Amino acid sequence: MTEQANTGLTKEQIKEQVKEEIVKKLRRSVGVTLDEATMENVYTAVSRTVRDLVMDRWADAGEEVHRRGAKRLYYLSAEFLMGRALTNNMINLDVYDAYKDALCELGFDLGEIEEQESDAGLGNGGLGRLAACFLDSLSTLEMPVTGCCIRYEHGLFRQRIVDGEQEEADDNWLENGNIWEIARPDDRVEVRYGGHIEEVWTEGGLKVSHDGYTSVHAYPYDMPVIGYDSKMPATLRMWEARAKTELDMTYFNKGDYARAVEESALVESISQVLYPEDNHEQGRMLRLKQFYFFTSASMQFLVKRHKQHHGSIHTLPDYYTIQINDTHPTLAIPELIRILLDDEGLSWEEARDIAFRMFNYTNHTIMREALERWNENMLKQLLPRIHKIIEAIDMEFRASIWQRWPGDLHKMDEMSIIYGGEVRMANLCIAVCGKVNGVSQLHANIIKAQTFRDFYVLFPDKFLGVTNGITTRRWLAKANPALTAEIESRIGRGFLKDYQEFEKLRGWLDDPDFCKAAERVKRENKEKFAAYILRKQGTVIDPSTMFDVQAKRLHEYKRQLLKILHIICLYYRLKVDPSVHIVPTTFFFAAKAAPGYHMAKEVIRLINAVAAFIDEDPAVRGILKVVFIEDYNVSVAERLIPATDVSEQLSTAGLEASGTGNMKFMMNGAVTIGTMDGANIEIYESVGKEDIFIFGALVEELDMLNKLGTYSPRSLYESNPELKHVLDTLVSGALPVPEGRQFYDLYNALLNEGPSRPDKYFVLHDFASYDEVFSKLMAAWKDRERWDRMSARNTICSGMFSSDRTIREYSENIWGLKGVWPMQRDGE
């Protein structure tokens, strides 16, 4: 079957063609007739027909890249939070309507078929979602890219809330296979761990032998990721760990079946789980194995592919550029140097020069204490050759530090790669990479002025900011088709291919019809989400209430605690004075806490306790409701975000690198209440101060408080009776939790000295400001004409947050990529 744009067929003919293809696939790929087919059978058949369309383009694109000698990006990331592929691929191929109509006539609902697909368990939060958006945008812009990660058999976990607490269940997303992937056994490579290294100088130079190692095979699976109207699908390469010998027949034949598969089980644990818990040595070792596993496999494949197509290893930087997404893939740097030295026979100077020309690094972390570092002895034991190469890089880097600041041992200690028994991965990245970018303009300024200040002085030309973005295809066309249709009826569909056409929407800023249409779509989305939550969790919610949403990874600096404390405050105000005006609101929280993150799990427990507390009181029924959404993932986000009225972005100023959830909510017409942090600042600049609600201290104020050490949360507590009442609720026994399970740890973290100063993330400091601004937000909600215009303006002004714009900036300022089939804009 060919795509609609290229067939010249009528819609009716295309629909009939789709029906015919689906019935054929049911018979030939699944082995059933239409009458016998289950919903899962139909999903398989439909997905295979769509995959065929993508595969044709994928094959042609690979050939064209090699023919033209085009430069390819290798994007290395521990996460790619892809979401479901079926309908997203249909939209990007422009066959969605044809499939929807064809399936309807065959007696099936496309929405129900989509539910058969599992969310790919390849990511957790914003880092992985950003990487997924980038693949979509790179394909849309016709730029060659291979994303590289681990083919995790199990995702982070499936979240269950039991008695108000988070429990983690297995996320076996591959249980029914992954129809979109293609196994590539011919591309498998060997990854080595442990052993010992011998270096011998010969007439031909230094020769290195590696003996006594453990060998792991890396088996690749490729998944095409098609952008909108693209001839150049991206490739997501996922590596699976397998033992060299999966079954030891010697032990098996002796009846020792457990030992026969013992080696295989140990090896395959490398690709079993996304982010194994690292609060013990075995977990940390496994993470280190994981990060080396996929970076080594990716670099080996890159070199092999280059030699196949281009010959000379010296031209490697002309054909490939490598982006390190956060520090997890940093070991790719010494691994590529190892390959060039040991396998290709290059000199140290040659290998170092090639590597230094190829790598760039995206930083996602502001807090220095959160920067990735590894125990040096562990790394040396597990990766002895890599350790040697890092030592050599560190020695040269130390010399450059000494040359710039002679005699300054403090600078040397702070900036060196290896220090105090640790290997510091961010320092390694900065020492080697050509460019280092932050993911918002504020973030870039902070890493230059604070986090990596000395590095910026040494390498001022390396640092820049590239503000994150999101793909309009998934987060508008797929998640919110009704709003997309309203936009399309006014400016056409070109904005899905060219983000700059979004600017045409600004001409509709003052159009009351667009505001009314957007409000109607929002109301319908809220009704759909209310029905979904009733089905999923049995929770009844009123879609006429204001939907206030905080959906993001659970971390103390993101301050879900501030939000739930404020809800308690609103509750007590209603109890004191039932006539006080509070907008009827449903407060949604959606977040997963890392299994070993006690404080984050306590916040989840508190949210659910407050939800039960409020539900038990008929006096506030219909005014306040708290809902915790279980097992938040991409598919749930696609339902929740279009239904949201208020986007809560409450991170402590200076601690959120960027955020992308804020952009998704904005694009779908939610109004932001947030701090001047991360990309909130650029949202503020885009929509203007009248259409966003900003609260809280600025970075400069908090820096001063930290520097002077004068902040006293207990003084706030003692001077504000209302705030004191709220905080005392955590430990007074008022909340419906078992005896002895009050929230002492949260209470003490806010008020009492502990391992760190009280209220480290300034929750109480910003509480009054948040309360004041939230009151203004509620007043704005009452003025429906004003609110609808604010909502519409957020959508209209969101075009700059397209990940297509982000990718263009990366390409122009860092990668030097060009589209293989460049887009033509009107007038060009």
Structural class: alpha/beta
Task: Report the β-strand fraction as a percent range.
Answer: 5-15%
Q: Note the gap between the termini.
A: 32 Å
* CA-atom Rg in angstroms: 27 Å
Helix content: 40-55%
Q: Write down the oligomeric state.
A: single chain
> What is the tally of helical segments?
35
Question: What is the averaged pLDDT score?
Answer: 93
Spans with pLDDT under 50 lasting ≥5 residues? 1-5, 824-828
Mind summarizing the main beta sheet? 10 strands, mixed
Describe this protein's structure.
By secondary structure, this protein is of the alpha/beta class. It is built from 35 helices and 23 strands. Strands 1, 2, 5, 6, 9, 10, 11, 12, 16 and 17 form a 10-stranded mixed beta sheet that branches. Strands 20-19-18-21-22-23 form a 6-stranded parallel beta sheet, with helices on both faces. A 3-stranded antiparallel beta sheet has the order 13-15-14. The two termini are 32 Å apart. Mean pLDDT is 93; it is low at 1-5 and 824-828.
Task: Describe the protein's topology.
Layout: H1 4-7, H2 11-30, H3 39-68, E1 72-76, H4 86-93, H5 96-106, H6 110-114, H7 126-140, E2 145-150, E3 158-162, E4 165-169, E5 182-183, E6 189-193, E7 196-202, E8 205-211, E9 214-225, E10 234-243, H8 249-253, H9 257-260, H10 262-268, H11 281-310, H12 316-319, E11 320-325, H13 332-343, H14 348-358, E12 359-362, E13 373-375, H15 376-382, H16 384-404, H17 409-415, E14 418-419, E15 422-424, H18 425-432, E16 436-438, H19 441-451, H20 453-458, E17 463-465, H21 472-478, H22 481-491, H23 512-537, E18 546-551, H24 560-576, E19 585-590, H25 598-615, E20 624-628, H26 634-640, E21 646-649, H27 661-667, E22 671-674, H28 680-687, E23 693-694, H29 699-708, H30 713-719, H31 721-728, H32 744-751, H33 767-782, H34 784-796, H35 803-815
Parallel strand pairs: 1-2, 1-11, 2-10, 11-12, 12-16, 16-17, 18-19, 18-21, 19-20, 21-22, 22-23
Antiparallel strand pairs: 3-4, 5-9, 6-9, 7-8, 9-10, 13-15, 14-15
